[in-house]
């Protein structure tokens, strides 16, 4: 019956249509711009979040809206849930010429990072990596009297001129926040140790009073950012001082340190402040412990470094503890030595100590100058 009805609609001399072609309208292979241009933004962002990162980065120049998505935390959270980034431990050394060894802490593998191939890093002038924070690197460009702050993942950078000429600095610390970043440093040119802070929100330097006496004799340890302030330690007798990044005021927290310390380093991560210190007498460490700051401003002992690992670390330092420095990396407290190419780290979640072995591609002739940095790529880290 259906076939009879369909044939009755065909004119004489015309080729009869099939039942399917009679029932379905003709489809266009082109997308209707009238529909796609009115697509709600939240649906468009959801679709784009499934793109591979490299493909999406190529779309940045298409329109301002796509570029703005790079700095949208809501979009980053969608994208990161489908394709999380790896995190890396990056090694900088005076003999690193453009290619930096990095350790992928997610895949547990070594690789080389050709930093010199990035168009953000100038090739005509020497540069030194001095600090990192939340996916942002800070390089010193002494020949041009400036710093270079860049986000390699977002392919954005900014050149920041030194506040004065000539200029020498110590304890430089880069602090990145969701609203920008700040660069803290003490200018060694002045006897009063004046402090300079660069604020990315106003793109200018501020000058503040220094702290007397000198903060530390370990220039490899950066300031530790915790609750809006940078924390430092003083030489013996050991104590802790802090610099408020908003007010520019120095404070001496009423926190008593453990006894019989031979050296002390601070680390912050996951909203907590930790202390790594050697225990001994006459400047010789016999053991090393880890403490956590409690709410009552007391240090609670967390772990003690196993004896064999402690012996190795102390022999690496040759009891010259000014070469030791610490930093936080993705749930790990990393303890490093300026003269040694390995990292001793504490896994907080497992409460275990480990050695990260020497990079297999590292030349044997490299002796001192090993500076490790935490590199956690962040698309929305503003530069």
UniProtKB/TrEMBL annotation:
What SMART domains does the record tag this protein with? FBOX
Q: Which InterPro entries match?
A: F-box-like_dom_sf, F-box_dom, Kelch-typ_b-propeller, SCF_F-box_component
Q: Which SUPFAM superfamilies does the protein's record reference?
A: F-box domain (SSF81383), Kelch motif (SSF117281)
Q: Pfam family example for this protein?
A: F-box
- Source domain of life is Eukaryota
Query: Which regions span the lipid bilayer?
Result: none
Residues forming the F-box domain are 33-79
Q: What is this protein called?
A: F-box domain-containing protein
Species classification:
Eukaryota, Viridiplantae, Streptophyta, Embryophyta, Tracheophyta
């Amino acid at each position: 019956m259906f076939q009879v009805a369909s044939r009755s609609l065909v004119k004489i001399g015309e080729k009869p249509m099939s039942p399917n072609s009679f029932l379905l309208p003709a489809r266009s292979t082109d997308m209707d711009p009238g529909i796609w241009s009115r697509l709600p933004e939240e649906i468009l962002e959801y679709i784009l979040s499934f793109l591979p990162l490299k493909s999406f980065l190529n779309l940045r120049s298409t329109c301002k809206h796509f570029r703005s998505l790079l700095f949208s935390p809501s979009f980053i959270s969608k994208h990161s849930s489908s394709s999380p980034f790896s995190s890396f431990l990056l090694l900088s050394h005076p003999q690193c010429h453009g290619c930096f060894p990095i350790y992928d802490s997610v895949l547990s593998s070594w690789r080389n990072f050709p930093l010199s191939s990035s168009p953000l890093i100038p090739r005509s002038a020497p540069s030194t990596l001095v600090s990192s924070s939340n996916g942002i690197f800070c390089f010193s460009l002494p020949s041009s009297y400036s710093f270079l702050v860049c986000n390699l993942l977002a392919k954005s950078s900014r050149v920041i001129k030194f506040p004065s000429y000539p200029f020498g600095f110590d304890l430089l610390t880069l602090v990145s926040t969701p609203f920008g970043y700040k660069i803290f440093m003490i200018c060694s040119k002045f006897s009063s140790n004046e402090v300079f802070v660069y604020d990315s929100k106003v793109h200018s330097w501020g000058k503040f009073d220094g702290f007397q006496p000198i903060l530390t004799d370990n220039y490899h340890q950066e300031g530790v950012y915790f609750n809006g302030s940078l924390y430092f330690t003083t030489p013996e007798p050991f104590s802790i001082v802090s610099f408020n990044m908003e007010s520019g005021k120095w404070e001496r927290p009423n926190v008593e340190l453990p006894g019989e310390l031979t050296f002390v380093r601070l680390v912050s991560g996951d909203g907590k402040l930790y202390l790594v210190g050697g225990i001994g007498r006459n400047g010789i460490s016999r053991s090393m412990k880890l403490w956590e700051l409690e709410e009552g401003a007391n240090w609670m002992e967390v772990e003690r470094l196993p004896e064999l690992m402690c012996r190795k670390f102390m022999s690496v330092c040759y009891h010259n503890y000014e070469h030791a420095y610490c930093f936080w990396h993705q749930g790990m407290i990393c303890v490093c030595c300026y003269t040694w190419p390995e990292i001793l780290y504490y896994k907080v979640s497992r409460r275990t100590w480990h050695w990260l072995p020497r990079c297999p591609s590292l030349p044997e002739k490299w002796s001192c100058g090993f500076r490790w940095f935490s590199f956690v790529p962040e698309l929305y880290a503003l530069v």
